[in-house]
Amino acid sequence: MSILIIGGGIAGITAAIYLGEQGHKVTLIERGEIMGGRLNNLFSVYGLDISPKDFMCEQVSKLKEFSNVDIFTCAELIETKGHVGNFNSKLKINNSKLREVKHGAVIIATGIDVSAPKIDCNSQKIINHTRLEDYIANNKIRRLSKVIFLCDFDKEDSQIIALSTLKNALLLREKLRCEVSVLSRNIKVAGKNFEQLYTAAREKGVVFSTVDGIAVKDLLLKCDWLIIGENILPSQGTEELSVILGVERDKQGFFQNNNVHFMPNLSNRKGIFFAGACHIDAGLNDILDDSLTAAYAAHNLVAKSAIEIGEKTAEVDEEKCALCLTCLRSCPHKAIDIEFSRELGKKAAKIIEEACFGCGICTSLCSSSAIELREYEDEKILKLIR
Ligand SMILES: Cc1cc2nc3c(=O)[nH]c(=O)nc-3n(C[C@H](O)[C@H](O)[C@H](O)COP(=O)(O)OP(=O)(O)OC[C@H]3O[C@@H](n4cnc5c(N)ncnc54)[C@H](O)[C@@H]3O)c2cc1C
Ligand code: SF4
Ligand code: SF4
Fold first, then answer.
1. 128 with 201, same domain?
2. Domain annotation covers residue 355
3. Each residue's pLDDT tens digit, 17-34
4. How far is the CA of 362 from the centre of ligand 3 (A)?
5. Is the pTM of this model over 0.85?
6. CB-defined site of ligand 3, < 6 Å
7. Of 232, 248, 283, which residue constitutes the final position of a domain?
8. Among candidate residues 110, 85, 126, the one with its CA nearest the CA of residue 8
9. How far is the CA of 341 from the centre of ligand 1 (A)?
10. What separation in angstroms does the CA of 58 have from each of 54, 64, 110, 241, 301?
11. How many domains does the chain have?
12. Is the distance from CB of 340 to CB of 347 less than 8 angstroms?
């Protein structure tokens, strides 16, 4: 069974390398012309001793060595049918060519997009993080005497922007020896190596202050540059992809883990996993761990000769089924199909056992009492409570 990976950023590449090493057939699709995602735009990453671009080049070269990994750039998923262990997808490559792939699992690693926060004053002195990275990378900074990073401007900053703030505050302080202040409501330092970076920035003289409701115009008078973080958004096309694959998104539109009590990479559909920034707000160190966890999960699934079926899956009594479609619409795990029964000469609901989580939602909603959960049949339960 092969694996389809969507997204050629560091998350998708890390997962693909691991699965390639395990000997699995992998198809990786990247929407853009080049692989690498957002890391390509960063000048440095705290804790990485080479530039993100060089790191990415190394990883891409490593990946290209695997003859069992097919990489397609300018490629997108346009349709997926089937279920865990037996998916069938259509890919659009270079805007025209269609290609079909059969695969047992999917890893979604589509990352993030950014948008500038709305600021009611226009000034050359206001810089966002993406522009700052570009200035640093291309040596475009001349002389600065005071820089202010304003965090949590519109709403609380994401961890990604907090990480970028700390890293760049330290970098500007060390490189340019200018005064650097970080103003925030509540700076989050919850990721891997975060606390260490925060301490290093403080020790080098970056000044951190807690503020609430500062006027941007007043701040502009006090500094050469005012750096404001972008809003982190789900990658463009996340909604369309969630519809194609039948996976859930959270209130902010990012892919949503199935259940906080389960492994974090699981989606609401068996065989579909999330990796990287498309479902967690984190920097590179955490993204690498997360992508490997998604790859282990996919490996554990496809390495077996057959997909394991849970003991407590649902079962439909086709004769009783009134074809009201309530179960089809309500199953959160897309484990129900409608099939024609030759024996009965009619269509009826059918459980896809491999995909069923045994949650019991369909059994409680079926007004014809046509569905039961194995091991929890009405008769058995009644006996227990009598
Ligand atoms: C301004 C900024 C500063 C940052 N600074 C730091 C930092 O200092 N340190 C740090 O550790 N991290 C930082 N990050 C975060 C870091 O960039 C991310 O953690 C990392 O890039 C996430 O990798 P990813 O592979 O999950 O996503 P991405 O890098 O976003 O890659 C996703 C890839 O998927 C592709 N894709 C999207 N949708 C589709 C689709 N439908 N089909 C096919 N392909 C698709 C995209 O084209 C992209 O190539 C920063 C991010 C930003 C925006
Ligand atoms: S809810 Fe019951 S009656 Fe309706 S389609 Fe499903 S099994 Fe059939
Ligand atoms: S028990 Fe019913 S609702 Fe729950 S996953 Fe199985 S088919 Fe879907």
1. yes
2. yes
3. 999 999 999 999 999 999
4. 6
5. yes
6. 314, 331, 333, 335-336, 351, 356-362
7. 232
8. 110
9. 47
10. 6, 10, 20, 29, 28
11. 3
12. yes
